[in-house]
Amino acid sequence: MTNVDNNEIDKFSEIASRWWDTESEFKPLHEINPLRLSYINKHAPLEGMRVLDVGCGGGILSETMAGCGATVTGIDLSEAALEIATLHAMEADVSNVNYECCSAENYAARHQGTFDIVTCMEMLEHVPNPEGVVQSCRELLKPGGAAFFSTLNRNNKSWLMAIVGAEYILNLLPRGTHDWNRFIKPSELSSWCRNAELQIQDITGLHYQPFSKTYSTGGDVDVNYMMFSVAS
């Protein structure tokens, strides 16, 4: 596997035991998960769908999508995170979710055209070749299937808010969680989607309000954003 950053895998594996601690460094993921879930379910209703969650980590999104009636497979390259995800699903008695340690590229080679929905949230900025992941997500979809991506824009505002603000001032994330140089402009992600024959249907921003300590969605995509596309 060439599209892997082992330092990134190790970084998240070291803190894997805290994935489901809502007061840990994963607190922001827990807080934005309802917004992500609502966005997905709005554009591609999950009930009865077969879903793949690429870069699932400890299973926060995977498990809640299963709770909406989807049959969910989560893949990740952190075995430690997958162990936590599997254990939590067992404890929560969620039987319609399973996990596999595999890259998107390798999984696509074995499961082309299998899924109704593929999600890849907060993962693209952690791999050397994000365009390759986008292509694999497309290969995994049935014709007309839906792909959802979320990542961080690359500009001065995102450096100030996502790096300086979130990691150094507000301590929302551990320092070093993100590399600004790996952030992805919407124009770049849009181009990769078009190259993969994914038709972009919607893009929305994800915003943090530091005074109220709440998250919301909206039109401003300067920092965090989500994108919905459909396989042509």
Poorly predicted ranges? none
Largest sheet, in brief, is: 8 strands, mixed
Can you list the strand order of the major beta sheet? 3-2-1-4-5-8-6-7
Chain-averaged pLDDT? 95
Q: How far is the first residue's CA from the last residue's CA? A: 28 Å
- List the helices and strands in order: HHEHEHEHEHEHHEEE
- What share of the residues lie within helices? 25-40%
- Structural class determined from secondary elements: alpha/beta
The shape is globular
Give me the count of strands: 8
Proportion of beta-strand residues = 25-35%
Report the total helices: 8
CA-atom Rg in angstroms: 16 Å
Give a verbal description of the structure:
Helix content is 38%, strand content 26%. An eight-stranded mixed β-sheet has the order 3-2-1-4-5-8-6-7. The chain has 232 residues and is of the alpha/beta class. The chain is globular and about 45 Å long.
Which structural traits does this protein have?
single chain, 232 residues, alpha/beta, eight-stranded mixed sheet, 8 helices
Task: Tell me the layout of helices and strands.
Elements: H1 6-14, H2 27-43, E1 50-54, H3 60-67, E2 71-76, H4 79-91, E3 97-101, H5 104-110, E4 115-121, H6 130-140, E5 141-152, H7 156-169, H8 186-195, E6 198-209, E7 214-218, E8 224-231
Parallel strand pairs: 1-2, 1-4, 2-3, 4-5
Antiparallel strand pairs: 5-8, 6-7, 6-8
Helix pairs in contact: 2-3, 5-6, 6-8
